[in-house]
Design brief:
By secondary structure, this protein is mostly helical. 63% of the residues lie in helices and 3% in strands.
Length: 542
């Protein structure tokens, strides 16, 4: 379907025997650049740490990333075995992605989201990896370190900011303030010796105040904002290269989505004539989602869809306040985490809304079924647990946007195609509605960032071409301003479908869905373009 971007040519004499050292050093640089990612992966040696956010600190981070980029490019490809070769390619993509964010997007000056990481402390609550008092001490260390870094946000951010990005960031920081004052105090306020409790009270109060101040400042600045979030065609092409390993003309990239959108729209509009969605009962939301999880898990085993790597329990809970921009998500322990946990998070609509608006936000039972497939079985949760079994530390740690979201989105269609929920045609209708949503994300991403489409025009595409309600259309168009890579859902799904069709054609009667899915998931979450040949090889194909 698409060609992978060429790897940089070897430029130096570094021998393959040196690669283990270079790989470990590169991974260390990347994890130090984003300690919250390391903590999410379960690497608690990064507890209490915050990446430098001063101008000098950011410059030093960029220099280290460039040095890592050069070291990886100097490794000769020929002597590397298949796992080392994949590790090198993934590290190169990871480094390129961080540099794109820090340099090409100029995130420290233009994106308030660059200053959210110091406020991300949920790992100390959600991961039971150590006694509560030890986690409290690490939390306090992070909050104290954060207070020394978040002061640089106002120094670095250059106004005017992007209007939609500033609006979203203001809500996020307000959510952090609420979370710090609420859940964090409830868990840690009375933990430990008096000295630790005093440090916690001082640091947590101060950090929540900093979050409130940033929220208020951003709310004030947003009306004066501009459209500086737009990438333009050249940076958009570079995003495709660094994020997905793709070198493809924009016309061809756009066409793959438009063809899929047209097919999904025809199927949706035909089925909508007869299928009748049933509403979700808000009072039963969590219980219904838990029941759907059990049904999906049983179906996967009965139909040999994919090997389930473990029997971990997933808890359904309400979304924390700082993540309420997302209607649903999975929050799960990482591949290196000794204490396993998984939370399927669902957002309850604002209780001040009228009943009709609340019901609209919750959607139908078919929507909830698709969300449960996407987030849990066999979507993000299963893929994340498979990543724990990847053969190398790099493959365990790296997560490509289109692979991760593409697998989850692909799972929605695949499960319905295999007969899950077949008793109610509205389940397929909901799946197609979700596919159209992702199609319009793709269209909005290309349109806004490479074709000059306005935010208002992107919103209209969600409404008229993809059958989304007006509030959803507005929210999703705005998301494209700060998440230009959200074409990844449809891209990854189409790449997986293409690879599956190729494997099925070559294997013939020997093809099985479980065998294909197990091969696809066996190496973590690399760009599909990088893993294409490896999957076919693992299936016994030349």
């Amino acid at each position: 379907m698409v060609a992978p971007a060429a790897s940089p040519p070897a430029s130096g004499p570094a021998a393959a025997s040196d690669f283990a050292r270079i790989r470990d050093e590169a991974l260390d640089v990347l994890l130090a650049d984003s300690p919250s990612v390391a903590r999410d992966l379960g690497l608690h040696e990064y507890d209490g740490r915050v990446a430098p956010l001063s101008a000098a600190g950011i410059a030093e981070r960029i220099d280290k990333l460039h040095a890592t980029e050069r070291a990886l490019a100097a490794v000769r490809s020929e002597p590397l075995g298949p796992e080392d070769a994949l590790d090198r390619a993934e590290l190169q993509h990871w480094v390129a992605g961080r540099l794109f964010y820090l340099v090409d997007l100029d995130a420290p000056h233009k994106l308030p989201q660059a200053y959210e990481e110091p406020f991300e402390v949920n790992v100390y609550i959600d991961r039971d990896y150590a006694p509560l008092e030890r986690r409290a001490a690490q939390l306090v260390a992070q909050e104290e370190a954060a207070l020394g870094e978040v002061v640089h946000a106002r120094e670095n951010l250059t106004v005017p900011l992007s209007k939609p990005i500033a609006e979203v960031a203001a809500r996020n920081f307000a959510g952090f303030a609420s979370y710090l004052r609420g859940d964090v105090v409830k868990v840690f306020g009375a933990v430990g010796e008096p000295a630790l409790r005093a440090r916690f009270a001082k640091a947590n109060t101060a950090l929540s105040r900093r979050a409130e101040e940033l929220a208020a400042w951003l709310k004030k600045e947003s009306p004066r904002g501009d459209q500086s979030h737009l990438l333009g065609p050249n940076r958009f092409r570079k995003l495709l290269e660094v994020q997905e390993g793709l070198s493809i003309p924009l016309d061809a990239f756009e066409r793959m989505n438009e063809d899929d959108l047209a097919e999904n729209r025809r199927a949706y509009e035909a089925l909508a004539q007869t299928a009748v969605p049933r509403p979700v009962e808000e009072a039963k939301l969590f219980a219904t989602a838990a029941h759907m999880m059990g049904d999906a898990k049983a179906f996967i085993s009965a139909k040999a869809i994919v090997t389930l790597p473990n029997d971990d329990h997933v808890v359904v809970r309400e979304t924390p306040p700082y993540e309420r921009w997302n209607s649903a998500s999975i929050d799960m322990s990482g591949p290196f985490e000794p204490a396993r946990s998984a939370f399927y998070q669902l957002t309850i609509p604002d209780r001040s809304w009228p009943a009709a608006k609340r019901a609209e936000y919750l959607g139908s039972l078919g929507d909830l079924l698709g969300t449960t497939i996407h987030e849990v079985f066999p979507g993000h949760f299963v893929q994340g647990r498979w990543a724990e079994r990847a053969p190398t530390r790099v493959q365990k740690a790296f997560g490509n946007y289109a692979f991760v979201e593409g697998w989850a989105h692909y799972s929605e269609q695949m499960m319905i195609d295999e007969g899950f929920g077949a008793e109610d045609p509205a389940n397929r209708l909901a799946m197609l509605h979700g596919a159209l949503l992702r199609n319009c994300r793709f269209a909005a991403s290309v349109g806004m960032h490479a074709r000059g489409m306005s935010l208002e025009a992107a919103e209209e595409r969600f409404v008229h071409d993809c059958h989304q309600d007006r509030p959803t259309a507005h929210e999703q168009a705005v998301r494209g301003t700060f998440d230009p890579g959200y074409f990844a859902y449809t891209l990854g799904k189409l790449q997986i479908l293409s690879l599956r069709a190729e494997a099925r054609a070559k294997l013939g009667p020997a093809f099985s869905l479980q065998r294909f899915h197990d091969a696809l998931l066996a190496h973590g979450a690399p760009p599909v373009a990088l893993i294409h040949d490896r999957v076919l090889h693992d299936l016994g194909l030349p």
